[in-house]
Amino acid sequence: MPAALEAARVSLASLPVIDISDLTSSNPDARRAVGARLRAACLDKGFFYIKNHGIRDSLAASVFSEAAAFFALPAEQKAQLDKAHSNANRGYEPLQGQTLEPGTPPDLKEGYYIGPEHRPDDPRVIAGLFNHGANQWPAQRPNFRPLMQAYLDAMLELGERMMRGIALSLELPEDYFAGFCRDAMGTLRLLHYPPQPAQAKPGQKGCGAHTDFGGLTLLRQDDAGGLQVWDQASDGWIHADPLPGTYVVNLGDMIARWTNDRYRSTVHRVVNTSGRERYSVPFFYTATSGTRWSAYRPASRRERARNTRRSRSKRICARCIGAPIKAETRCALARVLLPRGTSCIRKIGKSGDLSDDEIAACFRRFGLAHPLCWSRRTGIRCGKSRLSDRLASGRRRAFSPRRGSTSSFNRAAAPPTS
User: Fold this and answer.
1) Most buried pick, 16, 106, 136, 363, via CB within 10 A?
2) For residue 417, is it within any domain?
3) What is the structure's pLDDT at 30?
4) What pLDDT, on the 0 to 100 scale, is given for residue 306?
């Protein structure tokens, strides 16, 4: 396997595993103690595991069994449920039907989207709101629908409970997010990853590097492994190995926006090197449709300075690069050491023009793609043919946050889908 797709193994004891059973305790001090542990995990690695969450292992096992049975159906039967037939983004997504890391080959996975049911006469359906409508259900699997609906209901309740924990972690009233969790959007996604091919295309993975755009992602995974998370402390990828009976929790871009980047959305990817089929079931918890997302309090001067510093000198778009790059860290493009406070793009411009082939070689070494866009918010798009011109010009604006925004560059380029 290429070195760029490898990740470090860390001691399971060093990974944050949080017992959230006390979130339902009648003792407010016990609930606040869980909030404090959540805060420490969010500020440290940005992802964590939760246990004693109330989801029965037998229910989760049945979901995995039914998912495997569905993906084993003939291709023509699965194609009848293609989500292209749905106005609500529900149904089957074929193998290599999504590319989360721009410029890379399509992701080596197939999936199935499920959400809360909405009747055709629902005003939100009539208005064509995103992710609102009816599900598609496989007639060949009669137990599929009731099982997935029961699991979805349980996960919606868990998502709301976790948002109470996030509020406590921010030292806010426990019900701070209550209005945003009322009739919240939630998406259940069944995923199947074939083994990583020995001769995969350059940069091809089970799932490309990205952050999730929503609030919280609660991931249940089988024992095959393959989830990799970018660790800020070590400046590299680490394995988020499966722990029986737990969920991996990723913070999404909405949480980062809401907290003025105090909590950061988690860059992650999947490389299935187990040599066998991998199954996972992520649940994406997002606020009520129409919610206005803004920071829970104005950014302080220190936070504004920190976010600007991150966007200019410590980060390159996580979708394009696949990982943040800090000052004084070897640059993935020019392979130079950056002095503190110098942005990658200006340093590359000063170090001389780089041909597209030289840039491509640097990216391939890290298993990454050409940066197809720096930021949708700034409107700057760098295609392969003009990338060297952009770099040579030393345009600092490509790494600056949107004027008037405290958002980090990583979130500005959040993917449209998770």
Assistant:
1) 363
2) no
3) 97
4) 55
